[in-house]
Amino acid sequence: MKAIIIGAGIAGLSAAYYLNKAGWDVQVLEKGDGLNNCSYGNAGMIVPSHFTPLAAPGIVARGIKWMLSSKSPFYVRPSLNISLLDWGMKFLKHANEKNVDRNAEAIRDLNLFSSKLYDEWAAAAGFDFELRQNGIMMLYKTRDTAHEEAVLAEKAQRLGLNAVVYDKNGIRELEPHLKMDVEGGVLYKCDGILYPPQLIKQLTQHLLSGGVQIHYQTGVKGFKSAGNALTEVVTEKGNFKADEIVIATGHELPKLASLLQLRLPLMPGKGYSFMYRPSPATSMIHAALLLEARVAVTPMNGQIRFSGTMELGPASNKIHLNRVKGIVEAIPKYFPDWQPGFPANTWYGYRPCAPDGLPYLGRVKKISNLSVAGGGGMMGLSLGPAYGKTIADILSGKSTETSIETFSPDRF
Question: In what order do the strands lie in the sheet with 238-241?
Fold first, then answer.
């Protein structure tokens, strides 16, 4: 059986991995060179702690406040774009407690399953992508945030997640080599980190050595069909035939879906990251999220990766310097000894954000041999292996390891 996977980010490569392992003939089509997708330059976090989707209570009011500052961590770029307006209305509908409670277990289970699969990859020959399953700290500077995080940690504990609340002295003891100016924090021991560029490189090498063909610079222009099944993918470099087709293109999911008269509401959430090399005396043991600033801090490859911001709106190649400056200025407020300065090189990428904060995962009803994997927003890398194994199980006629009903690509 032949499968074509569109997209060579973590979702597409993971699907290729598990389908290849199951004996499928797999080809991957990638529009770009594979080096600038969101899987490559992100924070590298595995986050079962993120059981609360982006569309959550309070985010709308907080987002309006953030909109008033050009350095804020969240911004919706004003536009008359119909897709953005439609996305916004759906987001408002889902930003409530009911949405969170209804989907928390499904998100938790998919993330925990993915974390387990990352452990299996790390133990396999040919893989060494700096996996560290030692937890992520949620750091806060205000009492209001401390209260919010204590409530969230209690919910996490009820869901069976290992979350420990620390006061300012306790959280500092977790990082004896760092000076921290914080009110306290929560350590989610269920979380982990890895080095994304190394993961993508090693996963790609594994696939190529296993006979998977990856076609870069191969943009999809359309599809051919017979009845309710797709027969060929039409690209800039010719047509590709397959028995099953998987779309895993991140923020470009809606574009490909529209070619098939399907609706997959999704907005690109632009994020920025840069690397910083601290002195050995300030080495970091755990990754952290700086909650008020919404900045991720991840030790990787002997350095620290800072990443943050969420700019929702149509994709553009422009780097908004004030957003990057907001990240830079936030760092010494939490870590006084770190003064990274404005970075010489800033990476940016797009998180694929569905309006209800949930991924798209599963078969499409209207087309018998089409499946979708993506739209995980800030959980994209975290969910990668689970995306892939789930897709492989579906295409092979097996039961999935976790319930994916709530992630249906047909829900809108």
Answer: 220-226, 229-235, 238-241
Please indicate, yes or no, whether the overall pTM of this predicted structure exceeds 0.85.
Answer: yes
Q: Is the pLDDT of residue 71 over 90?
A: no
Q: Is 371 helix (H, G, I), strand (E, B) or coil?
A: strand
- Residue 137: strand pairing partners: 187, 288
CB neighbour list of residue 158: distance below 8 Å, 6 or more residues apart: none
Q: What are phi and psi of 351, to 5 degrees?
A: -80, 130
DSSP H or E stretch at residue 295:
strand 295-300
**What number of other Cβ atoms are within 10 A of residue 185's Cβ?**
32
Helix and strand totals (H; E) in the chain: 11, 20
* CA distances to 122, 131, 244, 347 from 127, in Å: 6, 10, 28, 25
CA 217 → CA 200, 220, 257, distances in Å?
17, 10, 20
pLDDT at residue 262 in the model: 95
Q: If 0-12 CB within 10 Å is exposed, 13-18 middle and 19+ buried, where does residue 397 land? A: exposed
Q: Is the pLDDT of residue 70 over 70?
A: no
Q: How far is C-alpha 232 from the chain's CA centre?
A: 29
Please state, in angstroms and rounded to a whole number, the distance separating the CA atoms of residues 174 and 178: 9
**Which residues make beta-bridge pairs with 190?**
none
Q: What is the CA radius of gyration of the chain?
A: 21
Residue 333: phi and psi, rounded to 5, are: -70, -25
- φ/ψ (deg, to 5) at 296: -95, 140
Contacts of 351 (CB under 8 A, 6+ apart): 38, 42, 251, 268, 269, 270, 271, 310, 377, 378, 380
Phi and psi at residue 164, to the nearest 5°:
-125, 125
Q: Would you state the structure tokens that stand for residue 301, as one six-digit string?
A: 């490859």
- pLDDT tens, residue by residue, 108-164: 999 999 999 999 999 999 999 999 999 999 999 999 999 999 999 999 999 999 999
Ordered structural domains, the chain, with CATH: 2-407 (3.50.50.60)
Residue 1 near residue 24 (C-beta atoms within 8 A): yes
CB 196 within 8 A of CB 41: yes
How far is Cα of residue 252 from the mean position of the Cα atoms in its chain?
A: 14
Of the pLDDT bands very low, low, confident and very high (cuts 50, 70, 90), residue 66 is: low
Cα 255 to its chain centre, rounded Å, is 19
